[in-house]
Amino acid sequence: MTFWRLALPVFLLACAPACAGAPVTLSAVYAPSDSQPIRSGVTWRVFSARAEADGAYPLIAESSEATPVVPLDDGDYIVHAACGLAGIAKRITVGAAPMSQKLVMNAGGLKLAGMLGDAGIPPSKLVIQVYLPSSTDPEAKLILPSLKAGESVCLPEGNYHVVSKLMDAAVGGANATNSVIYADLRVIAGKLTSGELRHRAATMTLKLVNAPGGEALANTAFSVLTPGGDVIREMIGAFPSLVLAEGEYIAIARHENKTYQATFRVHSGEDRDVEVLAQQPAPEGDKPQQATPD
pTM of this prediction? Predict the structure, then answer.
């Protein structure tokens, strides 16, 4: 079965000069029950089974064809197939007659998408990380630091922990928002595991105004805090915008040595303006201290 395509160059290294023996046809399947070989995305390497003086095994041939045919002299070899992060090796003995070798990858596919309400999140606005968990730590080992949403990757059968971070586009780059989704899933050999990571967030535009609906005051420094006082983001401008996870926040505005604040709530998918009235200065105790990293 095929459920993804990986862009890999197709090439075959020249065998050793004496390598003109029996042809060996190689193929791979995702699971033992698969009847059809993997048709793309496999990288093949054939090594001599006899190690050199330094302990390394000489590379005899390499190919990214789906089912390469490799001529090999009589002898012992190690055949290795890799697909995404899955790999399998097998020792073979080549004689005078042509032979075929099928390797079972025991692997499946993983394909994830991000959703905000009923709309898909563009891949550029998501950072999806895949971890190999341990019994005590779901994020024990990071194996995929950036899985692109909508693309499939081949993984060995097993359990995985996924972290999806919604990004907020900014001038010169992007910032991670506080909208983070966690998921635990299992990849089954020969199957495609797919899922939607649903974020709940919205874009808030901050304004310091003298009266409701008034013109935003320029040269204002804003801080957005959680009700517990943790700083989410600090920005400067007349009406800066940021993406926030659903929840309650405090906006603090500093303008001409005076500080003002307002409490607001974010509802998923409801982008809106947040006005801070430049009337009653905020108490000294509510002023933010030092910002924490995004």
Answer: 0.80
